[in-house]
Amino acid sequence: MNKALPSRVPVTIISGFLGAGKTTLLRHILQNAKGHRIAVVVNEFGSLGVDGEILRGCGIEGCRDDDVVELVNGCLCCTVADDFLPAMEALLDRADPPEHVVIETSGLALPKPLLKAFGWPTIRSRMTVDGVITVVDAPAIATGRFADDPEAVARQREADPSLDHDNPLAEVFEDQLNAADLVVLNKTDLTDTGELAKVEAEIRRLAPRPVQIIRAAEGRVDPAILLGIGAEAEADLDARPSHHDAEEGEHEHDDFESFVVEVPEQKDVETFLSRLQDVAARFDVLRMKGFAAVQGKAMRLAVQGVGTRFRYEFDRSLPAAGARTGQIVVIGQKGLEEAAVRQALAGV
Ligand SMILES: Nc1nc2c(ncn2[C@@H]2O[C@H](COP(=O)(O)OP(=O)(O)OP(=O)(O)O)[C@@H](O)[C@H]2O)c(=O)[nH]1
């Protein structure tokens, strides 16, 4: 008689470029978990850990703070053995292990090295990758954020025939798309129907195999669609090509850089927001997020910027005592002028 295999805990990987809406989608999943025990693992590019902050103490019923595991030490896809595997084992060894694990990777992470980790002996009998969901920023594609300059590629190819792209964003975006079992085409509220159709056609052109695309605004997709894909993605790596396949999991993120800027208490929201927007535009910043104190306000101001598009909210109380300084993480392509950005954000 066959002995039944112990069931493996399903894992969903949420991938997608900086600011595409991964944390927003994750919050929507947690808000609609209907009592299922979901553990969340977050990893960010940049040392500030804003997403973990947002998810912990999110006030969502049934979501306990210790269900949110934050891996801040570098990029998940590069530190698999050191940080990631022990964190997964710790989750599985809990007295009340989760029913499902959702991993939000950083916006610059390549999903493939992470997928490979699920083939490691200590983990493969206990977990399976239910699916890779790639969140895509519809207006960013529509405005050509991930597009190459064909002439530049042709010129560079003369020197290096193996060259695929002149735009490092295109490479990361394609790797994330290549790994996807499902694409969530997010921010449809910012893109008209004609453009959305073009964006979908572009995704289908780039994807290495037919992929389901779901349109969404604010990450509102029924978790029943997102969780339970049953892809067993770790067993299907060859169908998910990566630009870094030849590098045996080793790769650098040296096309991008990130730093954290301390900002003083702000006079008012409007002046601060327009300064952030101005900095994003002048220095071509890809992503800014963080927190600040505003004069006369007891609540903390949380700001989120994707390119020059910003949102803010007063999200929670600031400690009554202590310095009223804030912190903003800034992410851009290599060559970002750190000193000038710091100066501009300080308002001098
Ligand atoms: N207009 C609009 N804004 C959105 C939508 N989804 C997310 N946002 C906003 O986009 C910004 C980035 O969203 P996040 O969910 O933090 O994106 P992310 O992919 O987790 O970002 P990183 O972790 O930094 O890569 C936030 O200000 C969100 O409120 C959407 O559908 N429409």
From TrEMBL:
It catalyses: GTP + H2O = GDP + phosphate + H(+). Coiled coil: none annotated. InterPro entries: CobW (IPR012824), CobW-likC_sf (IPR036627), CobW-like_C (IPR011629), CobW/HypB/UreG_nucleotide-bd (IPR003495), P-loop_NTPase (IPR027417), Zinc-reg_GTPase_activator (IPR051316). Keywords: Chaperone, Hydrolase, Nucleotide-binding. The keyword Hydrolase applies. Residues 256-348 form the CobW C-terminal domain. Pfam families: cobW (PF02492), CobW_C (PF07683). Gene3D superfamilies: CobW-like, C-terminal domain, P-loop containing nucleotide triphosphate hydrolases. SMART domains: CobW_C. Zinc chaperone that directly transfers zinc cofactor to target proteins, thereby activating them. Zinc is transferred from the CXCC motif in the GTPase domain to the zinc binding site in target proteins in a process requiring GTP hydrolysis. Belongs to the SIMIBI class G3E GTPase family. ZNG1 subfamily. This is Cobalamin biosynthesis protein CobW. The lineage of its organism: Bacteria, Pseudomonadati, Pseudomonadota, Alphaproteobacteria, Acetobacterales. The gene is cobW.
